Fold:
Amino acid sequence: MDPSSNSILLKEIIKELIWSVKPQDFLTYFRKMTISKLENNWVVFWVESGFMRDNLRHKFYDVIKDSTNRIVPETEYVDFVIDREIDTPSNNQVIDCVKEYKELTSKKKKEDKKESINDGVIKKIINQRYRFDNFVVWASNQLPYAACEAVSRKPWKTYNPLFIYWDVWLGKTHLLQATWNSIKDKYKDSNVVYTTADRFVNDYVSSVKAKNVDKLREKYRAIDVLIVDDIQFLAWKKQTQEELYNIFNLMYESSKQIILSSDRPPKELTELEARLRSRFEWWITVDIWSPDYETRLAILQEKAREREFIIPQEVAEFIAENTSENIREIEWLLNQIIAEYELHNTPPTLENVARRMNKLSITEHFISNVSAKRKKNKISYEDLIEYVSSHFWVDKKEVMWDDRRKENMIPRQVSMYLLKTRMNYTYERIGNIFSWRNHSAVLYSCKKLEQILKKNQDLHYELNIIKDKLWI
Ligand code: ADP
Ligand code: MG
Structure:
């Protein structure tokens, strides 16, 4: 078959994959590839590295096969082979998946933008990034999360009306917009409106001025789900409250879903009309309090991962320990760190992050605390090897024993390296664990891994995931 048509097919397959694989996974594991063989019912992909091959084989086999199948229907098997020549400039069949991803998603963004202009104000104020799956849940926000999630699955049937109150910057808007996004994903034709109380006020005031309040009422009457954020802004606006109250009543009586949020509990909204207040009291209300240390850490890591940025564990812990309880501050810091890295190429270290936070003086105390904590939470070497092996989809016994197969090498080197650098094992002790290798073999493995890590950002990323999971 003509090789250029292969690359056209591959492009189509990659397009399918982009929508089927999580963005962060796609950007981590899918790099340069070509189709080397397209015969009978086989499709063979040439890929950039062993790391890519192993991950595609183990983690993404089914989804790749399905996507290939959609483009080349007779496909029954797919396979992956490393191509050392993939970077040769004359190789014009190569598709760089990351580049492809960026092009495709920016095209989509532009289309979305166009659409949103036609679609009026609503879509413009919705942030597509606010989703349930990137909302970190902790004990005290579990209830509002679960309530919103339930409502998004079955609007009109579960918690109606739903009223969420919660301190500023703790994720109300994220949750409300995630609900919007999720309902829109499931019920494409539904009329879901997200608005804020001050927008509602503006709408109302201009319709009064234009003498077409009826039109406004018509508009809201046609809505299936109405989400109003920040209703604390309605305080003092008596007439608007009255109008909103009428709209709520109408909607509620015809079983339409209403979701509200405020940064004050209903009892504190003393300025609001008594009528409105009493309504709120019998609606389902859920409240929330601040995230604890573990959650702040999880939020930071989630946000960093979303931005495909690696934060060293110590730095992440330091930030989580020393930020107040609001998430904006964590996000602000992360943005600063990323900007510093992108603009000046300065990676985040404990020292420069502490300086930025004006907390340089407490780093020493922090470091001694961290090592004490690590000692307390100590996991065994067996746990570590077990986890590393399962992370790389290999068998723990083979990693520990003298098995020379290639797929066991990286997991073995990673285990040794972590035992040495994070758990302070001596080379001798590590040698004993790994079927009595001598200490220089262990030293060699650790150095080798360090070299690989310098060049291989993907593996670096994997290592950080493992460290996070094991809390080491
Ligand atoms: P609020 O509306 O309560 O003032 P936001 O929804 O604007 O708060 O949240 C502030 C920022 O913090 C947003 O960027 C949001 O994505 C993030 N955030 C808040 N809570 C969470 C959470 N539980 N998980 C992930 N991100 C969160
Ligand atoms: Mg908000």
Remarks:
- The domain at 3-102 is CATH 3.30.300.180 (GMP Synthetase; Chain A, domain 3).
- The mean pLDDT is 81.
